[in-house]
Every structure is written in structure tokens, then in C-alpha cells.
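Task 17 of the worksheet. Students: predict the tertiary structure of the chain below and write it out as C-alpha cells. Keep your answer in the requested format; marks are given for formatting as well as content.
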Amino acid sequence: IDLLDMLSVTGDTTNYDYDNAAVGIGNANTMTVDFTTDNGSTAGACVAVSAAAPPTPTPSPTPTATPSAADLVITSMRVVTSTAVTVSQPITVEVVIEDQGTIDVSSLSWAYLYGDPATPPTTGVPGDNWVGIDALAAGGQITVTLNYPGFATPGDHVFYAQADTWNQISEINEANNVFGPITVTVGSGGGPVATPTPTATAVPNPGGISGSTLLLINGDLVPIGQVALEARVGANVIATTVSDATGAFDFGMVLPAGTYDVYGAVTVSNVLYTDLQVGVIVVSGSSTIISLILTP
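Model answer:
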């Protein structure tokens, strides 16, 4: 209590000053003060006091929750073909994908490579080649290689790449999956001449081959999409197709009756999985159903 001035209860009109007396009174609003006058007598007085209100505490800020999800981001992409690229020369592209999120990726997603797309790729738009990624730790990265068959004309061409193309992974940011463009200059000399695609000839009374593609991984058989399939007769590829997200495929009713070999291949986390079914018989007017079980 600062500057507490008290008047003698004996009627003395002298003020007795007690400067800067610190007294703790808790929640009380009165206190008794004993003091001694000049003639040696002691008296007590009940003095009304007021206590300063305690300071209002500053509220602690509410912490902002950190989003808990993965975040697949392509951090770099480069052409790794060792020689100068020429017309129709196959090109290998290296893509680095990182999980910049807070949790691990433990389910399958697909990264695609695009050569000279008309517009930058968006979610759900397939490209020219692809690779599966089945696991990636938070903060980890994986480097994958994707092959492109080559450009038909000389000059500057561009590549894009996209992670989680089919939006199968829940991410913190769904808008940062695309990387590109990067430019590759294609020379005119030295490359092989591109073989023109033959015109399809109508097949009388055709048949077909359809079925499913399964991946043997960690001892389990699971449906796997994005498997590139070929129906072959000897070394000749007669028809091609790609299995859908459920692993289903259908070459369509385009195959002449006969015997075929069916080859399937897909790359997941830099491991190539394949299967070859030989002696598949196609009958006119019907589709032969098979299953391919792909193993490393």
C-alpha cells in the first residue's frame, strides 16, 4: 500500500506517513494497522483499503493443426539418354517423386509421362508411358525411369510428368502433381526412320480375348490396372490394349480365329512384373476369357 496516511485515534491531528508499505491482504477490504505515537502510546485503527484487480491473463493462441496426409510432388525430371537425340530415337526420362506430406503412402498410384501434349496434363488424363508407385515414406523419394518412343520431327519438343494421375491418394495439396515442361532438342540425322502404322484390315468372323490382370505381390494376388497387353502370333503383335483400374481388359472382337500368345507387363516402384499366356485359342464370334498373373 503506497503512501498510507493515518490519523491518530487520540485526536492528534498529526499525519503519520508510512511510505511504500507493502502489505498483502488477499481478498480482504479492511485491515487493522498498529502504530506508535510520539508519546509512546500504541493504537490500532481499522483502515479501509482497496486491492488492485489482478492482471487479466493473456490467452494462449490456439495451435494450428498440421494437416495429416501425404503429398506427392515431382521435384525434378531430366532426359537421361546419353547421346544426342535424333528423330524417332527412343528417349529415357528420369523422374524424381517425393512425399512431402506427413504420412506414408501405402497404396498404389500411377505416374505418367507426356510427350508434346496439346495442353499441360490434368488429373485423369493418361499419358504415353506410366509407372506404378506402391509405397513411399513421408519425406522419402523415389526415382523412376519412363521411356518414350521418340519424336517424328526435328526441333524442340517438351515433356511433362504427373504423379497420382488418377487421384488415388488423399493429399494435402491436390494441385501440385504436375511437373514441366522440360525441353529436348531433336536432331534430324542418325535416327531410324519411323515405321508407318499399317491400316487395319477388316477381319471376317473375328473373335476376341478378354479377362483380368492380377499382381502377385507379398504373397497376395491383387487386381492390377494399367497393364500393357499384346496379343501375338509368333513375333508379330496383332493387337494391343491396357487393363483398366479394376484389372479388366478386352482386346475387342478384332482377332481372326486362331492361336495367340498374350503378354502383359507393368512396372511398379521400378520392378517389372510380367506374364505370358501361350496357346490361347480364339474362336470366331466369341471372346476367350483368361487371367494373367504378373510376377517379378
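Marker's comment: The radius of gyration is 40 Å. Confidence is low (pLDDT under 50) at residues 1-11, 18-23.
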